[in-house]
Amino acid sequence: MKLALVQLNYHIGNYEENSNKIIAHIEEAKERGVDLVAFSELAVCGYPPLDLLTRQEFVEGAIAAIHDIAKHCQGIAAVVGGPSINPQARGKQLHNSAYFLADGVIKETIHKTLLPNYDVFDEYRYFQANQDFRVVNYKGKRIALTICEDLWDDQPTAAAFARNNLYTLSPMQKLAALKPDFMVNIAASPFSYHQENVRKQVVCKKAAEYRVPVAYVNQIGANTELIFDGGSMMVNSEGNITHRVPTFKEGVVDVETDSIDDVASDNLFETDPIKLIHDGIVLGIRDYFRKSGLQKAVIGLSGGIDSAVTAALAVRALGAENVHGILLPSQYSSGHSVSDAEDLAANLGIGTHTVAIKDVYQSVENAMAPVFDGREADVTEENIQARIRGLLLMAYSNKFGHILLNTSNKSEAAVGYGTLYGDMNGGLSVLGDVYKTDVFKLARYLNKDGEMVPENTIVKPPSAELRPDQKDSDSLPDYDVLDKVLFRYIELNRSPQSIVEEGFDKEVVRKAVRLVNFNEYKRFQTAPILRVSGKAFGVGRRMPLVAKY
After folding, report:
1. pLDDT by residue (tens digit) across 170-194?
2. Which member of 67, 154, 424, 520 has the greatest number of CB atoms within 10 A?
3. Active site positions, annotated
4. Residue 265 near residue 200 (C-beta atoms within 8 A)
5. Where are the beta strands (DSSP E) in 218-289?
6. In whole angstroms, what is the distance from residue 521 CA to residue 543 CA?
7. 484-490: long-range contacts, CB 8 A cutoff, minimum separation 24
8. What pairs with residue 217 in β-bridges?
9. pTM score, two decimals?
């Protein structure tokens, strides 16, 4: 059988665009003599649709689109993901389904068994789990259909102390007992910089364990925080990858299923985390703007590393003509900060405006003088400067329709080193899941083919420049140490004591953990953060704002 794996970028709720893409690829596959073409999970409506699934008209629209796509499946079959109605009187109203389309109609509807309910996933909120295991017969082949998590039954529980697996059954084990010729797994597996390698290991292990070839079809694109990198692949019964679709782009690969064991394996996967983070963020910015009907971005340029890397990534995603920089120097801004920002703008080819904030700050200081009388200057005055900058950036955003990109990195977000309604403003957080040490690595990566980020921006000590001679290191541990502690506490979910036992200074760990816990309220109010790690702030990390722990 000739099978086509089609990796596309879908738009949530845009049935017309999604269906037109799917139908176009079905027609092209017919011309190539393809027998079966496979698309990804919930392809017809986009993933994740979240509470749109609670709206009757949304679900009905998705199912109507499936019927329309089926009409084009004459002389060819297709597997398309979409929601379906649960006919049972008990349970959730919907299934997450793989529709098998042939002869112009829906021939089979196979449902997802394992419904992830951890990190960014909340599928059990909407869907009823499958309990019926069967294969689809088509052109003399027995085809097993599974959906994304159905291959991940070995998934460990999220708790760091747990030892048991999250699931109690293996859909692939059930289906392998029915002796399929091959399996199609349609997926919507989000990107993180280590996920591609993990995904490869899971799919290859399952194919080899059950001696069943697996066609894995993932989507690409970004939907708010979540980025999807694709990485669709064909794996033979020995667990070797024989065909792949490149990551971060739409693509198609055709596979002759009867001869895949004779195809040389292709196990080359990108392993450089900084390149993966770069590619993921560029795609995340581009799709956030395109799918929201937006075009132009504005960024506050401080001359620092975070705003420089954010601007460079935005230019790669949107084009220099769609990115504008605002320089907002204060009485504490060094001369090199202004010149570094100007050099950055020249390197990137973006337009800028300079709006000094000294006079505005003086006006606020004068206005508050009677209220603050007798009190020493402290962080309040620093925050006033940050909030003035935020006010002016939002004024530009309102007047010209540019979306403000937030430039805070993950290290700062973790310990609360940012000002609400000031430098934490923005419609999208570009670096909010990138630790400061990796921001520097991103700058070097951006400069590999010529300088984008000025060298002085990279080598000078980080500073908020809100008071004379201020340095980040005045109030925070060195980022090389801080980031390692934060990674263990946030991503690895380790206790402070276990981190200390690894050799980290007890006081540094205590301070870092206290700051992470205390500043939850700030992160609750921040912009959506592009997710590039296994545990980002936002929808995948839910902590109480009011707690004593």
Report:
1. 999 999 999 999 999 999 999 999 9
2. 424
3. 41, 112, 148
4. no
5. 220-223, 226-229, 233-235, 241-244, 251-256
6. 10
7. 485/509, 485/512, 485/513, 486/410, 486/411, 486/414, 486/415, 486/435, 486/512, 486/516, 487/435, 489/513, 489/516, 490/414, 490/516, 490/535, 490/541
8. 186
9. 0.94
